[in-house]
Amino acid sequence: MRQSVVVVAGERESVVRGVGWRWPGRARALSGALTGLAALLVLAALVMPDSADRLGPAAFVRIPAEAVVGAVVLPALPRRPRVAVAAGCGVLLAALTVLNALDMGFRQYLGRTFDVVLDWSLLGDAESYLEDSLGSGTARAAVAGALALVLLLFVLLALSVVRLTELLARHPGTARRSTLIAAVAWVACASLGLAPAAVPLASHRTVTALRGQVHRVSDTLRDEAEFRKVARADAFGNTPGERLVPDLRGKDVIFAFVESYGRSAIEDPVMAPGVDRMLDARTKALAKAGFHARSGWLTSATYGGSSWLGHSTTMSGLWISNQQRYRTVMASDRLSLTGAFRKTGAFETVGVMPGVQKGWPEQKWYGLDKVYDAFRLGYRGPKFSWSTMPDQYALQQYQERVHGRRPAAGKGRMSLLVLTSSHQPWAPVPSMVDWDRLGDGSAFKAMEAAGAKAADVIADTAKSRAEYGKSVQYSVTALTEWLQRYGTKDTVLVFLGDHQPIARVSGTHASRDVPVSLVAKDPKLLDRTADWHWTDGLRPAHDAPVWKMSAFRDRFLRAYGSTPGPGKN
């Protein structure tokens, strides 16, 4: 019995020894794998490009100068400071990586980089857009996932830098030789300008990104002070009301913005054929109804989104390219183009804003006596993704509630319309119905249910481009059919896009130009703009004049008889 116990004990000892013999090998393999993953993560963060079109294998096969410097400095520190500094470097690298990712997204959607001072508020708008497009559950899941990913990135990069630093500190000889080889390779690649696949092998991407962020913050803070001075200089700020737009007295003047209506809709080979046919057909239809049209181009202050920047740029005569400038103007007494009509005392002023779903204090700056938002148009139908209602319905309600009623005796009317059906994600897109069958919008339920789903379109470039083209055709058709149906000899319509669609639809190198059209029955009203040299019809020629959007206010005011007053200090 004792012998058997010894045998069993011996077997157990052998097994234990076998496990103990195998475990160090597995531990070393696991440790090596974790170190390799840490190195790859840090390398990817150090050399990650800031634009989606630069992503590719070549972008990550580079020698980062920051890694070489870190390999020299960090291991030389005493252990406790070394760990703290390494963790701090990892956190800083994670922060720059997040900002880098935001830059990529902003370039893709807004055609510019992320402003670390001004743009955080836009992330809330992005969440609201996802809720309207994909549903609240999907939006909450996406936000939670993004926050978890950011937190994980901070933790992993901090741990990775610490792990790599400790490894170098434990093997100083190997670390010095490896660092020297990397440094020599970096200098050689930089000196020779080696750049296979047009990507330099010698990288200092992180230092460049950090320097860029510092400059952007400095530029933003300086721009705020400079812009306040520019905004106070207003050629028409002190012009008496009787000297503003005297040639439009008694007229029915309408300014209408068509969401995301950009040059790409008219000139892109995929979208243009359908849009151009529509514009030509609508030009002929309006001509039969007695209307004349001329069109040109304006360069928008925004791109892909932030429509309010385009609206306020057009109406203020200032280049409002960021949120700080927008807030500055909204809090000022700068004369808006719409406010100029109110200042005359000869016009009723009204706004129709189906996209406004909360308080809109900007009404005061725009000089609007009354505003019809999403909740004041009596709509009982379904939302079309982000758009609260089809443009045709909003226009019919404008007719019934505003345009179809006479203004006060002796007064004209100025209206500001902001249409929304061509807002991304362009799914589902409504279609035209009989104007007399619009009712309260309930008739759109079947149309919305049968239309394309936002989730199927939002990430598909081909579908997005096709549906975008359809949405522009719908919005412009609705507006011009309304004009054809309800416009009078006194109607003057100016309609334009607020910005180009996102880069995934318009292209990464698309301009910021948007079409603008002036339509009226009275040819004398168009003749006042003869020196603008715009193209006849609703479709501007490729080489038609291009102005900055901020130039429109003053040109329009002067064309219709306004005279500048003494500037404001």
From TrEMBL:
<feature type="transmembrane region" description="Helical">
    <location>
        <begin position="59"/>
        <end position="77"/>
    </location>
</feature>
<feature type="transmembrane region" description="Helical">
    <location>
        <begin position="84"/>
        <end position="102"/>
    </location>
</feature>
<feature type="transmembrane region" description="Helical">
    <location>
        <begin position="180"/>
        <end position="199"/>
    </location>
</feature>
<keyword id="KW-0812">Transmembrane</keyword>
<feature type="transmembrane region" description="Helical">
    <location>
        <begin position="139"/>
        <end position="159"/>
    </location>
</feature>
<feature type="transmembrane region" description="Helical">
    <location>
        <begin position="27"/>
        <end position="47"/>
    </location>
</feature>
<keyword id="KW-0472">Membrane</keyword>
<keyword id="KW-1133">Transmembrane helix</keyword>
<dbReference type="InterPro" id="IPR017850">
    <property type="entry name" value="Alkaline_phosphatase_core_sf"/>
</dbReference>
<protein>
    <submittedName>
        <fullName>CDP-alcohol phosphatidyltransferase</fullName>
    </submittedName>
</protein>
